[in-house]
Amino acid sequence: MAYSDRDRLIALAGIYQAVHCVVRIARQGSVDTAAVEPCLFSLFQVDADTVASVFGPPGAVSVGARQIVEQMTSQSERDMELTRYVITLIKLEQRLAARRDLLAAIRAGIDEATVMLERRSLLDPAIFAPIADLYAKTISSLQPRIMVRGEPLHLNNQDNQNRIRALLLAGIRSAMLWRQTGGSRWQILFGRRRLFGEAQAYLRQPAMHDQ
């Protein structure tokens, strides 16, 4: 299947959106659920018809696309910690791709969580908890490990820990999509103009809800 620049932009925006949510929770203790939902939704999309549908309705990763634009245009708005998380997730996904045992464990864990969705909402804490546990049992065994920084008050909260780990797993999911669509670190370094243009175009499209 041939993938477009828009497909790669959406996948990269998925990583940025997941990381943005992690940073907000770690620093402030909360984040807009409209930004969180597409990230978690993506974990349960195994056979999606298109890259965009992995995240839900049109404009689902607008928050991530906006982060890409800000990182590329404004020195004052750049958040180097966010960028480090993105790069680390891409590296972790590459390590994960070589571990069939961990991939199988993640798939089994997602299947179990999918059954729970029959009686619970997507953003129910009871859904975050097993996904967070799945992250701890699989991705946490890989290098480099992500050390999330923020306010101790927020980081010591169990619900926040679960949300952060679930979102990091969603970031891995997006990194996998980024690689599958032909994305690479070279494109981030040398294809910035093309990514920037696609991000702007994505943000101009009609969205089903304001993020």
Automatic annotation (TrEMBL):
Protein name from the UniProt record: High frequency lysogenization protein HflD homolog
Subcellular compartments: Cytoplasm; Cell membrane
Pfam families from the UniProt entry: DUF489
Source species, domain of life: Bacteria
Transferase found in the keyword field: no
CC terms in the record's Gene Ontology section: cytoplasm; plasma membrane
Membrane topology: Peripheral membrane protein
InterPro entries the UniProt entry points to: HflD, HflD-like_sf
Record-linked NCBIfam families: PRK00218.1-2
Homology family: Belongs to the HflD family.
Keyword Metal-binding on entry: no
Keywords linked to the UniProt accession: Cell membrane, Cytoplasm, Membrane
